From TrEMBL:
GO biological process, one term: xanthine metabolic process
Originating species: Candidatus Enterococcus testudinis
One of the record's GO cellular component terms: cytoplasm
Binding positions (5-phospho-alpha-D-ribose 1-diphosphate): 128-132
Protein name (Swiss-Prot/TrEMBL): Xanthine phosphoribosyltransferase
GO molecular function: xanthine phosphoribosyltransferase activity
Keywords tagged on the record: Cytoplasm, Glycosyltransferase, Purine salvage, Transferase
Length: 193
C-alpha cells in the first residue's frame, strides 16, 4: 500500500534494535483517513471469505481492525491483555510471549463473542515474531471458529512471524513489508496489497 509506505518514510523513526516508531499515525496518535484506507484495503482483499468477525488485540490493533470491520459490515472484537472488572463471563485465554518485552501475558476474549459458526479475519498493527497473532489464533481455535486470514499493517520481514503463520497454513496479507531497519533507514519489500 503505497500511501502507507510513504507515511512510514515521512514519519517513521527507526530506533535501536530493529524497532520502528510510528506513533504519529498508528500506535499513539492515529490518522483516521489512513486507517480507513487500510480498513478498505483489507476488506477488499478478504471480502469473498465469508468473514463474520474481525479479531485483534489491544491497543494498537484496534484502529485498523475497526475500520476493516466497518468496511466488511461485521463486529470487531479486541482481545484484552488485562482482565477487566466487568469480564465476569467464561473466557477464552491464551499465553502470549513478547520477545520485545520478554514477558508472557494472558490474553482473553469472552466466550460469548466467538463460536464455531464464526469465520474470522485477524488484524494487527505489527508482525514481528508472530506471538500475538498466534495467541489470537489459539483463542479462535478454542471457540471452534475458523481463521481464514491475517491482515498486518506493518510486517518486519526480517523477523520470524510470517514463517510461523504460513506454517499454520493461514494466508498473511501485509500492507507494508520491511526488509531491514539499519542505519536509521527502513528498506521495503513489495507489500501484499
Ligand atoms: P509479536 O507479537 O509479533 O511476537 O511481537 P513482539 O512480541 O516482538 O512485540 C510485542 C509488541 O511490540 C506488540 O505490541 C507489537 O505490535 C509491538 N512491536 C513489535 N515490533 C514493533 C516495532 O518495530 N515497532 C512498534 N511500534 N511496535 C512493535 P504490544 O506490546 O501489544 O503493544 P500495543 O499494541 O499495546 O501498543
Amino acid at each position: 500500500m503505497e500511501k502507507l509506505v510513504e507515511r512510514i518514510k515521512e514519519q517513521g523513526n527507526v530506533l535501536d534494535e530493529g524497532v520502528l516508531k510510528v506513533d504519529a499515525f498508528l500506535t499513539h496518535q492515529v490518522d483516521p483517513h489512513l486507517m480507513k484506507e487500510i480498513g478498505n484495503t483489507f476488506a477488499d482483499v478478504f471480502k469473498d471469505k465469508g468473514i463474520t468477525k474481525v479479531v485483534t488485540i489491544e491497543a494498537s490493533g484496534i484502529a485498523p481492525a475497526l475500520y476493516t470491520a466497518e468496511a466488511l459490515a461485521v463486529p470487531m472484537i479486541f482481545a484484552r491483555k488485562a482482565k477487566s472488572l466487568t469480564m465476569n463471563e467464561e473466557l477464552l485465554t491464551a499465553s502470549v510471549y513478547s520477545f520485545t518485552k520478554q514477558v508472557t501475558s494472558q490474553v482473553s476474549i469472552s466466550k460469548k463473542f466467538l463460536s464455531k459458526e464464526d469465520t474470522v479475519l485477524i488484524i494487527d498493527d505489527f508482525l514481528a515474531n508472530g506471538q500475538a497473532a498466534k495467541g489470537l489464533i489459539e483463542l479462535c481455535q478454542q471457540a471452534g471458529a475458523t481463521v481464514v486470514g491475517i491482515g498486518i499493517v506493518i510486517e518486519k520481514s526480517f523477523q520470524s512471524g510470517r514463517a510461523l503463520l504460513e506454517d499454520m497454513a493461514i494466508p498473511v496479507v501485509s500492507l507494508a513489508r520491511i526488509a531491514s531497519l539499519s542505519d536509521g533507514e527502513a528498506a521495503f519489500l513489495e507489500g501484499d496489497a
